[in-house]
Specification:
Layout (H helix, E strand, L loop, with lengths): L1 E5 L2 E5 L5 H10 L1 H4 L4 E4 L8 H4 L3 H9 L4 E4 L13 E3 L2 H16 L3
Parallel strand pairs: 2-3, 3-4, 4-5
Antiparallel strand pairs: 1-2
């Protein structure tokens, strides 16, 4: 896994080629990043299927309940199919924008 530290968040990118293994690995190390805003960079996966993306659903829900952002970057999934609980955006820049907006909302008490 490649971890990139940015101001206010971390980007986690998979070095291997199995999205379900990556989701399981992130689940196993969640205590190490539970207090950080997170972007999961899975842009490298070509045609990602919804069932593969859903491997991140439980982790995303738990992370967001902790008051931190969890955004997935992938540009091949059909956004219309993605459950509302998952934040999926097509670029890393949009992921950063989402985190900044959510931080503002949290600061304002929303």
């Amino acid at each position: 896994m490649i971890i990139t530290e940015k101001e206010g968040y971390r980007i986690f990118a998979d070095e291997k080629s199995d999205v379900s293994e990556f989701a399981s690995f992130l689940e196993s190390i969640h205590p190490k990043f539970k207090n950080d805003n997170v972007v999961v960079d899975i842009l490298k996966y070509g045609e990602l299927q919804l069932n593969e993306l859903l491997h991140f659903l439980e982790l995303s829900n738990r992370h967001r309940k902790g008051g931190k952002s969890f955004v997935i970057a992938n540009d091949t999934i059909n956004i219309e199919q993605v459950p509302e609980e998952l934040l999926v955006v097509p670029t890393l820049q949009e992921a950063e924008d989402i985190i900044q907006m959510e931080e503002i909302e949290r600061d304002l008490g929303f």
